[in-house]
Amino acid sequence: MAFNLAQLELGARARVTLVGGSGALALRLLEMGFTPGTVVVLVKRAPFGDPLELQVRGCHVSLRKAEASRIEAVLL
Amino acid sequence: MTSLRGPTSLRGPTSLRVALAGNPNVGKTSLFNELTGARHKVGNYAGVTVETRAGAVVARLAPSRPITVLDLPGTYSLTPIAEDEAVAFRCLAGAEAEPPDVVALVLDAANLARNLYLAVQLLELGRPLVVALNMMDVAAEAGTPVDPDALARALGVPVVPTVARTGEGIARLVEALGSIEHVPQAISPLRARLLADDDALPAPPGIGAARWRWLVSAAAAGTLDLAGPTAEERAALAAHPAAALTAAAHARVIARYREVDALLAEIGFTAAQRERAPAMSRSAAIDRVLTHRVWGLGIFVVVMATIFSSIFTWAEPLMGAIESLIAWLSDQVSAALGPGVFTDLLTQGVLAGAGNVLVFVPQIALLFLLLGLLEDSGYMARAAFLVDRLMARVGLHGRAFVPLLSGYACAIPAILGTRTITDPRDRLATILMIPFMSCSARLPIYVLFISALFPADDRVGPFTVGSLMLVGFYALSTASALAAGAIWKRTVLRGPTPPFVLELPPYRLPRLRNTLLHVYDRTADFVRQAGTVILAVTVVLWVLLSFPRPPDAPDSGRDVAAAVQVDPTAHAPKDMSPAAAKDGHSDMSQGSDENSPIVYSIGGRIGKALEPVLLPMGQDFRMGIAILGSFAAREVMISTLGLVYGIEADDENQTPLREALREAREPDGSRRHTPLKGLAAMIFFVYACQCMSTLAVVRRETRSWKWPLVMFATMSALAYVLAVLVYQVGRALGYT
């Protein structure tokens, strides 16, 4: 299993390699800027550990872990 | 070139139609209000709850010709994943009406790296485009100033810098819009690249390239129905395997972002600059507190408590004032017209009905004022972020929390508040959950039965039985709401979990003017749409409970006024007046009920006819009439029951009715209202959807009678079955 964004440590940066799966979620993730090559930073986890706050393309976007795990990346 | 122009060039100097597009949180609403002077009409597209607003550009801005502006929903993209985007695309593509002549795209200058995605999609659509480059001040402050001329060259469309907050640049935007047709828009290399049909899945003949890409994306997202495809289009899509559609849709998004990056490079952004979020640095500092795992949750609780008390108690004086005004108007009408059926119709039907509508206005206005301010400031997204984990357990979005909480005060504003939930299934599930929450109108009913039928000094440990029962009812209602939500989400409303992709926008100072306009739109819509239903039902209830009148009591309808009118102050019982209490005592001793005018009425006869059905849950025809009357609003049950007993009573002045209930005897000398019967009645009111206003609002929000009927039927059935169960099991165990 490749590294994905749900496994990011706080403050760590990663470069997106692939948005897996099909359907509305995959398309929405891509449209929000999680395209291959984009650098993502984990800014924060919500108080109960989920969802996550990620920085992507100059925005802060919140994703649930289950959704973030669909985005494969390489740690920078 | 001509193909890029709107059909207006053929229509002469008529009004220019402009569609305002843009991402959420880019100041689009402020810009719209500046352009139109905040005079607009709210519209809805058929079948969806997405609102659009339209207004004319004000003369002060000196448009060279009349311009009307249509405000589209704020979207990140035009791909129809949700209704918002579908509405925006259908409007821009001219699927329903004539397409707009010009698109005005609002871009956040401080966040071009994501905002330009929508610009690229709009260029693909090929409609004349003018960019309003908003938040120039924020971008400059954040150290990433944008050169509008460079952006105009790169995009190949006019770019007007604006600061919507101050109105700066608005006049120039109007000028640019008015002259768009005289300035031929050259096809830039970018636009040419975007329009080139280089897809892996080329558009079949007869379907435009932009339309085809849109259909492919919708098919890949599994939301093809939102795109409203023709039979031919469906057939063309069906010719391709799903994997090919997904691959093509994904490749298209990636290609668009490649163009965005090329655009950013062209206007001088480095890769590092587009990655960072300089406009977010101040917000990140605020978030260190507001989404902190301890402080954040603490502040969240305080914010929610403030919202809750605003609709629970702050609205109360205003509601009392509305009640007084209606009472004063009724007196004036009665004095002017003298007694008679027509006077009663006006005062007890029409005026009482108007009161039943207006009484909700303070709660709705307050809730939307607070929600609007929090939404515009950026806090509501954080609130959803904080509690999403908890809400996800029930299968709901974090945004469902506030409406559910508001349900403890009143279901009406709570149901209206579900509009912040974008997924239609999630929104409907939340709407169906809200009436289970124990609203403030149920409280007087619990108080009546508990204090009438349960000894005040019965204790379990340090707590009185009554207070434990109250806590129990609230716990029961909460558990039932959560269970109902889980059941609906797993059955009828089952579907793929909607993506929780939530932007946490930069914090901004909300603009009171924008929020107040929103509050006005919402409230006016409630009065117009749900209000008519509430008014009509009030009149019908008045007729049912007033006619026919007993032959010897010509003025008997008088008491019904008190019964059918919703009592706005139900939420905070006041001290009852001693005089009223004394009156009540003297009336009570008569204990008349069979001869009350209300028992003689149609409603009374319905109550009697229902008695065989009510007996299994320990209730008689008197409660049947009270349940019928409580359809106006739950607390009206008290004044209706008072009328049956020939007593002036309402939820503030309960003492005489309490004593009547306590003293009432059956012919055999046994107590008529026993604790067990009272408990069964209270269980019934925990579950029964006895509130015409709730049903009217659900109809308005779901655009059909189907869901209010489903809600009423399921909740009534549940209420009946559980009340029967409580009574029968209680009796079997030897309780009375």
UniProtKB/TrEMBL annotation, chain A:
Mitochondrion listed as a keyword: no
Protein name: FeoA family protein
Domain of life: Bacteria
SMART domains reported in the protein's UniProt record: FeoA
Pfam family, one: FeoA
Domain annotation Ferrous iron transporter FeoA-like: ranges: 3-75
InterPro entries: Fe-transptr_FeoA-like (IPR007167), FeoA (IPR052713), FeoA_core_dom (IPR038157), Transcriptional_repressor_C (IPR008988)
Lineage, top ranks: Bacteria, Pseudomonadati, Myxococcota, Polyangia, Nannocystales
Keywords for the protein's UniProt record, in alphabetical order: Iron
Automatic annotation (TrEMBL), chain B:
Protein topology in the membrane: Multi-pass membrane protein
Stored CDD domains: FeoB
Coiled coil: none
Keyword tags: Cell membrane, GTP-binding, Ion transport, Iron, Iron transport, Membrane, Nucleotide-binding, Transmembrane, Transmembrane helix, Transport
TM spans (from-to): 294-315, 350-374, 394-416, 428-454, 466-488, 526-545, 625-647, 679-698, 710-730
Family annotation (PROSITE patterns): G_FEOB (PS51711)
Domain called FeoB-type G: residue spans: 15-183
Region (Disordered): 569-594
Keyword rRNA-binding belongs to the record: no
Subcellular compartments: Cell inner membrane; Cell membrane
Pfam families attached to this UniProt entry: FeoB_C, FeoB_N, Gate
Primary residence: membrane
Matches recorded under Gene3D superfamilies: P-loop containing nucleotide triphosphate hydrolases
Keyword Magnesium: no
Annotated function: Probable transporter of a GTP-driven Fe(2+) uptake system.
Family: Belongs to the TRAFAC class TrmE-Era-EngA-EngB-Septin-like GTPase superfamily. FeoB GTPase (TC 9.A.8) family.
Protein name: Ferrous iron transport protein B
Gene: feoB
